[in-house]
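Handout, page 2. Input:
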Amino acid sequence: MGLTLIRHTRVAVAEGLCYGRTDVPLAWPPEPAFAAVAATVRQPVAAVVSSPAVRALALAQHLATRWQVPLTQDVRWQELDFGAWEGQRWAAIDRTASDFWCADVERRSPPGGESRAALRTRVQAALAALHARCRGAHLVVVCHAGPIRVALGAPLEARVPWGSAHRLRATAQGWAA
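Output:
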């Protein structure tokens, strides 16, 4: 009957690092704790879907094992691709290039990366596939802040806390908050 989108827990990276597709490690022990995240999800859950990033997959594997449900990975739930900027400190990225991108993140992309419109297109495709699969079941997706913002129709700057759960309900037209 629904879909719960969960952001992965806190990562172990230096402040100011640009990462989207870069596979960065989780902080250990997880913060918030995996069990605390699991407690925020309505039961029963039929399946867990995860971004293939290690930071999402670790929590997804824990949840699927805890609930004894299938786990699948879907690349459409990956974070925004920052292209050539991946792994660099934001302060080290050419200001002219980043300002140009920031002026229209919807249509512009970092060099070799993707725009927010591209992120939206793939997340909407993933949502449509889950809606077709749902058939009255409750599904959980473990992913990143960017895809969650898109799924919720939230602005780019909307805060999505580590380990937070966001519930959508199935309607005849798709998903609704």
